Amino acid sequence: MSSYNFMTNALLKKTNFHFKKKFGQNFIFDENILKSIVERSDIKSNSLVIEIGPGAGGLTRFLATKAKKVLCYEIDLELKPILLENLKLFDNIEIIYDDFLKRNINKDIKINYDNIYMIANLPYYITTPIITKIINDNIKINEIVIMVQKEVGQRFMASPGQKSYNSLTIFLDYYFEIKKLFNVSKNVFFPKPKIDSMVISLKRRDKLKLVLKDENLFFDLVRDAFKYKRKNLRNNLRKYNLKVIEDELKKHNLDLMVRAENLSIEQLGDISNKLKSSS
């Protein structure tokens, strides 16, 4: 056990810290894995790294050696004395004790950086809201490197026809180039979760995946198409012009009996554009 891990365990006991299931708290102390996350993130000079949920500061320490500044958001105030002690040697770390989802992140980023990354170990329940906020608030993040539950990572990278392919897959594919970096065993966490994790990279596309006539229409269509997973498009898309959808599907040798899980993002984009043109 490293001196840092020994000290952190002592601090957790001294402060009588209790892991909170509602925050999805599972800390990782394996320094080889933490180093690998930072190395695979390829943090450039004059960069800001945003970390959500630094926990006891294990990953934060390694990020601070690479980035010009690390901006952390921690919702659990009980971690404050532990983070103050563990990170006291660094002068380039700022910790905001607040809910990331309620912050104006662009205001929190006070100066310009050449690159902005988000690197974090995220619980499942908050992963999608965080990524959605980054997009909707137009936070200029170049790359997101996150550790998520393995099944979540598989969903993010799924292909048409796979069981885990859904509307979220398409949403992310539209904005990001997604790739798996490596798997992480559940045995390196404390408390130990039920399933393994995966570290993935979401690199912001320089050019969006599709040329859409109406982005809102496209995402409404995608959500509706996947609303009832076992139903076909004829049933899920009744509120749309089914004749237009059927004509577009015929170009791909498909019909309204097809399920959304068998359509590519490009095919759904074509349907959306055709619906917009016919309206």
List the helices and strands and how they pair.
Blueprint: H1 3-14, E1 27-28, H2 31-41, E2 47-52, H3 58-64, E3 69-73, H4 80-86, E4 93-96, H5 105-108, E5 115-121, H6 124-136, E6 143-149, H7 150-156, H8 167-175, E7 176-184, E8 189-190, E9 197-204, H9 215-225, H10 233-236, H11 242-250, H12 265-278
Parallel strand pairs: 2-3, 2-5, 3-4, 5-6
Antiparallel strand pairs: 1-8, 6-9, 7-9
Helix pairs in contact: 2-3, 9-12, 11-12
Q: CA-to-CA gap between the ends?
A: 65 Å
Q: Which consecutive residue ranges, at least 5 long each, have pLDDT under 50? A: none
The fold-level CATH name of the largest domain is Rossmann fold
Helix-strand topology string: HEHEHEHEHEHEHHEEEHHHH
CATH architecture of the largest domain: 3-Layer(aba) Sandwich
Query: Helix content range of the residues, please?
Result: 25-40%
Number of domain units: 2
Number of strands: 9
Structure notes:
The chain is an alpha/beta fold and 279 residues long. The strands form 2 sheets. The protein has a 7-stranded mixed sheet with strand order 4-3-2-5-6-9-7. Helix 11 crosses helix 12. The longest helix has 14 residues. The model has no long low-confidence stretch (mean pLDDT 92).
Task: Offer a quick outline of the entry.
With 279 residues, the chain is α/β, with parallel strands linked by helices. The protein has twelve helices and nine strands. Helix 9 packs across helix 12 (265-278).
